[in-house]
Amino acid sequence: MIKVKTHKKIVLAAVIMLTVLGGYLYNAASRHTVTAAPVAARVQVAKAVYADNFDEGMNTTGTLRANADVVIKSKVETTIKDYVVKKGQRIEAGQLLVELEHHNQTAQVQAAQSQISVNEAAAASAHAELTNAIAEQRRYDTLVESGAVSRQQADAKQTVQKVAAGDYARANSNVEQANAQLAAAEATLNDYLLIAPFNGIVLDDYDMSVGSKVAKDTNVLRVADIDKLKLTVSIPENEMGRIKVGMPVKIACNSLPQESFKGMVENINPYIDTNTHMLKADVSIDNKSTGYRLKPGMFAKVILVEKAQQKALVIPKEAVRQDGTVLVAEDGKAKIVHVTVGLTADKLVSISQGIKEGDIVVISGGKSVKDGDRVTYKEDPQ
Fold first, then answer.
1. How far apart are the C-alpha atoms of 361 and 372, rounded to whole Å?
2. Which CATH number fits domain 74-200: 1.10.287.470, 3.30.70.270, 2.40.50.140, 1.10.1670.40?
3. Is CATH 3.20.20.220 what the domain over 37-52+310-382 is classified as, yes or no?
4. pLDDT, tens digit, 9 for 90 and up, residues 280-312
5. Could you tell me if 261 and 283 are in contact, meaning their C-beta atoms sit under 8 angstroms apart?
6. pLDDT tens, 310-347?
7. pTM
8. N or C: which end of the chain has fewer CB within 10 A?
9. Are 318 and 348 in contact (CB under 8 A)?
10. Environment class of 326 (CB within 10 Å of its CB; exposed 0-12, middle 13-18, buried 19+)
């Protein structure tokens, strides 16, 4: 019995020693533990900048087209005598563009002109004969009254006067006929002279050249008036009240980045398309004032401007949180700032209060970030 009690005492002493040693080691470890710093949130940012002519309105698209676009065709079968203009050349209304071979037609015009000269000379001679005959008849009528000549002689002079009058009438008719023939010959000749219908530019020459054969209805030139361009926009029926004639329009094209152009709503269709329930309107652009930078066929992004700001501090729309605040990254930490939002255009909003130019705002990655949290930029602000 003595041996068993001694053994139990030894085991109990060992347990106590291990417990004391474990507590000591735990306390020692606790004294040397260092609390880890919170990890900085990685965010994407943008810089608040000033934008000129910041506009708010309806966004849509359209394709630019010329104010007038005409294909000039040959009305006759012949060959090209002279190409007076080239592709891309500016033209003026009434200018000769292409001269088709017209030797026979020119000869017909010259013959008609000559015939007019002959007929006019004959008419002048007939007029002189008539004048003399009238004078002679009057003289004989006077002589009859005095008894110097007989009535028979006076009647003969009257007959001569009537014949002269008939000859003069026929001569005038011949002149009119010759003029009609000349007009017809000139009209035919005009079919061989292709004239500019308006001020514009040559868009296409269809690879024609001097000596090329052309048949009737062959395309010879395509000309367009590009001093003014147009595009048609479509507006949803439920927003038709927002568009008005004379409304300013802002136009941008991907092919001319960093540039914008001004236009105006010129007219609005008086009906709604029953298939699409869209209202169409035509926008006009003074292309001459742009130095003809815009070209027919360009795809354009359009803003029908309802409100405009000459200069606005702008940031991306996604930077503004639902509660009307933005996160500003400052000295590596997030700062919650309440802002006053103004106009909205495309992917940007204007800010009138709360931030200043150059402030770095968080646009993504800051959903769970709180005021004072550390942040690191996903990429440098542009």
1. 14
2. 1.10.287.470
3. no
4. 999 999 999 999 999 999 999 999 999 988 899
5. no
6. 899 999 999 999 899 999 999 989 999 999 998 988 78
7. 0.64
8. N
9. no
10. buried
